[in-house]
Design goal:
- The protein has 39 helices and 40 strands.
- It is an alpha+beta fold.
């Protein structure tokens, strides 16, 4: 029961934190997901209906003066007219002043009782109206029942008045009475979406065409409170979404929840768990008792109370406080049941069968399925209604050896099976309601058919056959008025001012026949007589009439009659509560765009921000799809029950037609077990689906539990949790800090072990108590013999921790005596320290002999035997050593008792961590999956727009095996974390771009955590990126540095994509001066390209990774070695050779230049296209050809030089006519050297990167990221090694033989010209033909220019097997011929061996087949012989049997004949006489 005096004046939050929950953060705040950062901006507030505030209601302007001045200027609800159920057809809307003329309307007239059934029968065809009336009655009975008849186990002495939810011309307070407002403005206080709301309504009243009021009303027509309250309830009910296929007018909306805020739990009733239902009802609602028993129990309770009061001084105050608290904190509930209405459109046979059975069962108890409504369950009964008579007293003498009564029957008598008495008392305003209205229904049936009030249920009436036996007069006297709501002595304004429609109806009525009029008048007279008599009776007995009638329902029929059990939990009676609410943006648009005809409008949303200074529930604006995530943490030694209430706003401001056209999805709540150390998804333990408010009971076994709760709704959600046990509910930031502590079961088990150990210490010198205490200790810790040593070590470590130092020799001996273990425990550390300090000089670097080993073993055995005897003596009570050890243990135990729980937890934790299988011995092992520790690392996000960035890269060292889970909180939309094992360069697997929980083992170089992200279109200012490293134990791995580094240097290289046969996109060389760790990222302009990024060392792949449109090598350490750079800086000359960019080339020394030492590293970053996934359009063909021409021009060494010198060189050669040219002058040599210098500078210029990149063309981007402090130790440049080698070789040739390039160029042109002439069918032009040499040279130059433009590439035809070319002479040819012949001979030898082996295998297989055939034939022969032997024996036996059969038959026939004769002639006859007689015959 909610209390009006309990104001919600707190402006902080509606969340009532459970004990231990941090109050720093509002639990109703949005949950931080994996992509949300801690620095996310706060969401804006957006209310729906204004939350209730007494101050605002007291300052409300009712505008009653306007109504007195101008009757037309009345208040109209800005949200529009209230939406009635579809079964009620509205004809007109009127004001109370238009409907009630002779009386002044009042809001409340009778404060003692009310009747909502007699005057509202025409509304009972509406299911929603029946629920409103029934639940108002139920609340009246529950909250206003006297002590004589309790309804619940703990009756709340608190009165409830339904009109106290209405406010008009009055102040907010307990017991207020609303007054009639002529202006028509009223405020209704209702509970909705987690808090009390202020809902404004007007006093417009809906009427049907028969002038029947379509809202609930009492018999007093001028009383308005049921009408106004129903209008507010209908507004809230319009937010519910009923299932239209079910034929119902409401979904899961409950009036009791709206009027009180009690949490509704809906339990479906099934026949197969009737026993559980009966057990639940017996525990939660009162039990029927006889009056004598109840009076005796009250007297007994009074006596007990008196005894307790007399002994109050002897009882501990703490016990009294705990008992009182336990008595007052029992949660209170109200139990109801409901059944569904008759749905004749149902096509499923099974459902129709259930409906028929339910209808038949309901009839037996005076209920009708046509009038489906909730009923109140008040009592259970397991005994007869009347107390059985007491048996007569038996004399005492008959009790001495009583005789057993036996009844002799011819058949065994079975004891009769008696059905147990199991009944439930239900209360309802509609019990036997149909029976009381039968007469009136029969009298007006004809009138209803001829145009009276039409109902969709008018053609159905459920009546028993016995109803016709009752006289109608008796029924009329007991039936209420069902046809008219108005009183007989009142005259309405509608009767005085009839409209045109009524006049037309009258004209049509006059045109009917006179006989029909007369019959109608007679029927109306009879009905009016019944009305008058009933009205008089009702006015006399209204105060005496019970609001609810009760009946007893058999438990067997209970599940047939009712389908749902409604359990209303009172949240104020729970010790721990927590609520949270969320709302989304689309509600505001609905509020502003909804028409006035809808149930909700934007009136309250305009001034909502100014009306919420004391708001308790905070609503947050979120994205379009409202999905929220929460976490629930429970740790309890006993089973935990939590009531979870979920409210969902599935629709807002939609009309009935829109609801039918576009079905609304209900809200969902799912709770499933969760662990940060596992990615496995568990099955849900709780699911709630609702369109209004619905609760479910979550039952959890003892222990620690973490549940992941996910909610989803269309517009808004509200979650309310209630429990008698403490819990923590909220987002991850709220729950995670509670998980680093040990569970309660773990602490309880540890405390039990330490207390058992304390009992052993306390009675260590007691010979009688010590054995039992020792057994109790062994039974408590439960470890086996193999694990006993771990327990002993844990005890030793506990004493060391408690004392804060290492144990002395006496203390160590006391611990060894206590545990019974002579092992040195912690003395191993001392021995290791002594061994590490110094060794004797003679023992350094020498091997131990066998004799020395044997001597050491003898010494150790002797010392161990002595120590064991000492321990056994000290462990025997009564000895001197035992007393000394007991004293030492007691002194040490004082330090342990100073912090008993801490040392107990440390003791058990040491056992679990170091003992294999010990954790499985205790039930607290199930809590280990929910125990975590964590550390947060945060760095600022760079303010860069639309770019790839590296956010975090640090190394963590793991010292022990532990499970780690990194979790990212990033304000950026895309952020991926990579974890690399630096020893193996393997990446920890990821699931859905999240690093999965993994068991990290200690390694040498640690693990590198690398986080990459892609920024959005706008830079994020002031953003924080955070990584939470979650571990299973302490301490969590820490950074190799003190603080994380976020200052990186990025070397970015770009270029166009040129397709080639090797599918290589780019190659870049890396040169480092010291060991350098870097991140390599490669990206293509097209996002669907499959890429392989590799790092090569001396052309061997050391690491690679693949991706689509984007690929990254998270971290790689480039090692610096001798000659580790790609090209040594500085110019060097060897035998007159030239250098290009400092690379040594030319000569035989150049061929031996390649490194052979393993310490020399040549790193290359290479990107390749996979699966030919980067096709280019034909429109880019010219662009790609230009890029290829530029590459080819870069490879030319003497391009410009030959263009200028080709003509002169050709003329000289033609003039000499085959003769050798004279030596070149030194002047020409100097000119050529200058030209070569130009070529060198040109080549160095053309090897640069593309400066201005066209983003519309296919291109790529390479990024190498390193620490800012080490940016100068790495150099990345394009791979031009091959091109430099070719250039260096050509320059070396030109240096050795000046003019060689020009001669080769002229020879090539001449050869091409001859080929062209042969192709045209002409002979080559020479000097003999008379062609001038100048013309010939001119043609050659023109031809050379034309031929130079042809795209002939001979590079693929070059076979290069050696680093440097070598002349092929006769020796090399002979050597190659000899190698080929050796290869042929070796192949022939191998081939001959293979043929010989195959031949031998073939022979072996044939011999094996022959042996198998011989074996098979032998088996067949042996089997045939054995079979023949068996056949012969069987034949002989059968022959013998056949021969014996005739003899046996003859003997049997003779014996039978003799026996017959003996029977006929009993006297003995001689055989001779028989023979003679035969002869005579």
């Amino acid at each position: 029961m909610s209390k009006t005096s309990k104001k919600k004046a707190s402006s902080t939050s509606l969340v009532a934190s459970s004990p231990g929950q941090s109050p720093k953060k509002d639990a109703s705040s949005a949950v931080v997901s994996s992509s949300e950062g801690p620095g996310e901006p706060q969401r804006s507030h957006l209310p729906l209906w204004p939350e209730w505030n007494d101050t605002e209601v007291n300052a409300e302007k009712w505008d009653a003066v306007k109504a007195s001045k101008d009757s037309k200027n009345l208040f109209d609800d800005p949200e529009g007219k209230v939406e009635l159920p579809a079964s009620l057809r509205v004809h007109t809307w009127k004001r109370p002043s238009e409907y009630i003329v002779n009386k002044t309307p009042v809001v409340v007239d009778n404060e003692v009782a009310f009747d909502l059934t007699s005057a509202n029968e025409h509304l009972l065809s509406s299911e929603l109206m029946r629920w409103i009336i029934s639940e108002i009655y139920i609340l009246w009975k529950v909250c206003n029942t006297g002590e004589g008849k309790p309804v619940s186990a703990e009756t709340v002495s608190n009165t409830w008045r339904p009109w106290e939810h209405i406010y008009s011309l009055c102040k907010a307070g307990k017991g207020h009475i609303p007054l009639y407002n002529a202006y028509g403005k009223y405020v209704v206080k209702l509970y909705w979406m987690g808090c009390w709301r202020k809902i404004t309504v007007d006093d417009l009243l809906p009427f049907d065409k028969d002038n029947n009021l379509l809202l609930p009303a009492t018999l007093n027509q001028s009383e308005l409170w049921p009408i106004l309250l129903a209008k507010g309830i209908l507004k809230v009910a319009s937010t519910d979404v009923p299932v239209y296929s079910s034929g119902r007018e409401l979904g899961e909306f409950t009036v009791i929840h709206t009027l009180t805020g009690w949490i509704p739990e809906m339990i479906p009733l099934k026949s197969w768990y009737t026993g559980d239902i009966w057990k639940f009802l017996k525990e939660n609602i009162p039990k029927f008792q006889y009056e004598e028993e109840s009076s005796e129990e009250k007297a007994k309770a009074a006596d007990d109370t008196t005894a307790k009061d007399s002994d109050v001084n002897e009882i501990n105050s703490e016990t009294d406080t705990g008992t009182a608290t336990a008595a007052t904190t029992i949660p209170q509930i109200v139990v109801c049941a409901s059944y569904q209405p008759l749905h004749l459109l149902e096509k499923r046979t099974s459902v129709l069968t259930k409906m028929a059975d339910s209808s038949e069962s309901l009839r037996q108890y005076g209920l009708s399925q046509l009038y489906s409504h909730p009923v109140l369950l008040t009592r259970t009964r397991d005994c007869p209604l009347a107390a059985p008579p007491k048996p007569p007293p038996v004399p005492n003498w008959k009790l001495i050896r009583p005789r057993k009564q036996t009844s002799i029957t011819d058949e065994p008598k079975e004891p009769p099976v008696q059905k147990p008495e199991e009944f439930i008392e239900v209360c309802s305003p509609f019990i036997n309601f149909k029976l009381m209205t039968v007469a009136a229904h029969d009298m007006e049936q004809g009138a209803v058919k001829r145009g009276g009030y039409s109902s969709n249920l008018a053609s159905f009436s459920e009546m028993d056959d016995s109803e016709n036996d009752h006289p109608k007069n008796d029924i009329i006297q007991n039936s209420p008025n069902t046809l008219d709501v108005t009183e007989t002595n009142q005259v309405t304004a509608e009767d005085k001012n009839k409209g045109e429609s009524i006049a037309n109806d009258a004209e049509r009525a006059e045109s009917t026949s006179k006989s029909e009029k007369e019959s109608d008048n007679k029927d109306k007279e009879r009905v009016q007589t019944a009305k008058e008599s009933n009205t008089v009776l009702q006015s006399q007995d209204e105060s005496d009439k019970p609001l609810l009638q009760d009946t007893w329902v058999d438990l067997h029929n209970f599940t047939k009659c009712f389908q749902t059990l409604l359990v209303f939990h009172k949240p104020d009676t729970y010790a721990h509560q927590c609520t949270t609410a969320h709302c989304q943006n689309s509600v505001s648009s609905r509020l502003s765009a909804s028409p006035l005809s809808n149930a909700m409008a934007s009136t309250h949303s305009v001034t909502a921000s100014a009306r919420q200074p004391e708001s308790n529930t905070t609503y947050h604006t979120q994205s379009a799809d409202l999905k929220c995530t929460y976490f629930l943490f429970v740790d309890n030694l006993l089973p935990t029950e939590i009531v979870i209430c979920f409210s969902a706003l599935a629709q807002w401001g939609e009309s009935m037609e829109e609801k039918r056209v576009s079905p609304t999805r209900p809200g969902f709540l799912t709770a499933r077990p969760f662990s940060w150390k596992s990615i496995a998804s568990e099955l849900p333990v709780l699911q709630i689906q609702t369109t209004a408010s619905k609760a479910a009971l979550l039952s959890l076994p003892p222990g620690r539990h973490v549940l992941h709760i996910q909610t989803r709704a269309s517009f808004a959600i509200h979650v309310h949790l209630c429990s008698m046990s403490p819990f923590v509910f909220g987002d991850e930031e709220t729950v995670v800090p509670h998980l680093d502590k040990e569970s309660l079961r773990f602490c309880e088990q540890a405390t039990m072990i330490l207390r058992a150990l304390a009992r052993v210490v306390s009675c260590f010198s007691d010979p009688e108590a010590l054995p039992s205490a020792t057994k109790d200790l062994e039974r408590t810790h439960g470890v086996g013999i193999q694990q006993q040593r771990v327990f002993n070590e844990a005890v030793y470590q506990m004493f060391c921790t408690a004392l804060g130092r290492k144990l002395t020799s006496d203390e160590l001996f006391a611990v060894q005596t206590l545990t019974g273990d002579p092992s040195p425990h912690g003395s191993n550390e001392k021995a290791a320290d002594l061994q590490s300090e110094s060794n004797p000089e003679g023992w350094n670097g020498r091997q131990v002999t066998d004799k020395e080993m044997q001597a050491a073993a003898v010494l150790q055995a002797g010392w161990k035997g002595y120590l064991v005897r000492e321990i056994l003596t000290a462990a025997r009570p009564g000895t001197k050593e035992n007393l000394s050890v007991t004293k030492t243990l007691e002194e040490m135990w004082v330090s342990v008792e100073s912090d008993l729980e801490k040392h107990a937890v440390a003791l058990l934790r040491h056992m679990v961590d170091n003992g294999e299988g010990i954790a499985e011995l205790y039930p607290c092992r199930e809590d280990e999956c929910n125990r975590i520790t964590f550390t947060d690392y945060s760095v600022p996000v760079p303010e860069v727009a639309n770019s790839w960035i590296l956010i975090f890269r640090e190394v963590f060292h793991v010292h022990k095996n532990m499970v780690l889970v990194p979790k990212i909180y990033s304000p950026l939309p895309v952020c991926i974390l990579h974890v690399i094992n630096n020893d193996t360069l393997e990446e920890i697997p990821r699931v859905f771009n999240r690093v999965e929980p993994h068991l990290y083992t200690p390694n040498k170089s640690g693990y590198t955590f690398v986080a990459e992200a892609h920024t959005g279109d706008t830079p994020l200012s002031g953003g924080k990126w955070c990584m939470r490293l979650i571990g299973s134990r302490e301490p969590v791995p820490k950074l190799a540095k003190e603080t994380p580094n976020n200052n990186f240097s990025v070397k970015e290289l770009k270029g166009y994509y040129i397709p080639n046969r090797k599918n290589i996109i780019s190659r870049h060389m890396v040169k480092v001066s010291s060991d350098h760790s870097a991140t390599v990222q490669f990206q293509t302009s097209q996002s669907d390209v499959y890429i392989k990024l590799s790092i090569l060392d001396n052309e061997k792949e050391v690491i690679s990774n693949q991706g689509k449109g984007h690929v990254i090598i998270p971290v790689y350490c480039f090692l610096a070695g001798n000659g580790g750079s790609v090209a040594q800086t500085g110019a060097r000359q060897d035998q007159g050779s030239l250098t290009a960019e400092g690379t040594l080339t030319g000569g035989k020394e150049g061929s031996d230049r390649h490194p052979t030492d393993t310490l020399v590293h040549k790193y290359c970053i290479q990107a390749e296209v996979l699966q030919e996934s980067w096709p280019l359009d034909e429109s880019l063909a010219s662009f790609i050809q230009n890029l290829r021409d530029e590459e080819r021009n870069e490879m030319k060494v003497f391009g410009d030089f030959l263009d200028g010198t080709s003509a002169s060189v050709g003329a000289d050669q033609q003039n000499k006519d085959g003769q050798k040219s004279a030596p070149k002058s030194t002047h020409k040599v100097k000119e050529r050297e200058k030209d070569k210098d130009k070529l060198t500078s040109k080549s160095s210029f053309t090897m640069g990167q593309v400066s201005n990149l066209d983003a519309t063309k296919p291109h790529w981007t390479l990024r190498v990221v390193s620490d800012q402090s080490k940016a100068g130790t790495i150099e990345v440049k394009k791979d031009t090694e091959k091109l430099e080698e070719i250039r260096a070789m050509k320059l070396a040739w030109e240096t050795a033989e000046p003019g060689r390039a020009a001669k080769a160029h002229q020879n090539r042109l001449r050869y091409l010209k001859e080929l062209q002439a042969n192709a045209e069918g002409k002979e080559p032009i020479t000097a003999e033909t008379g062609t001038p040499q100048s013309q010939q040279s001119g043609e050659i130059s023109v031809l050379s220019k034309n031929i130079s433009k042809t795209d002939i590439v001979y590079t693929p035809f070059f076979r290069k097997s050696l680093p440097q070319p070598r002349l092929k002479d006769q020796l090399i040819e002979e050597e190659q011929r000899r190698e080929r012949s050796e290869k042929f001979q070796s192949f022939r030898l191998i081939w001959d061996n293979i043929l010989e082996q195959r031949k031998q295998e073939k022979i072996t297989r044939r011999e094996m087949m022959k042996r198998q055939l011989e074996t098979y034939v032998g088996f067949q022969d042996a089997m045939d012989a054995y079979r023949q032997k068996m056949l012969q024996a069987r034949e002989a036996y059968s022959t013998h049997v056949l021969e014996q059969q005739p003899l046996n038959k003859e003997e049997m026939s003779v014996e039978a004949t003799e026996q017959v004769e003996l029977e006929k002639n009993p006297t003995q006859v001689q055989p001779g006489a028989r023979k003679s007689a035969n002869k005579k015959k």
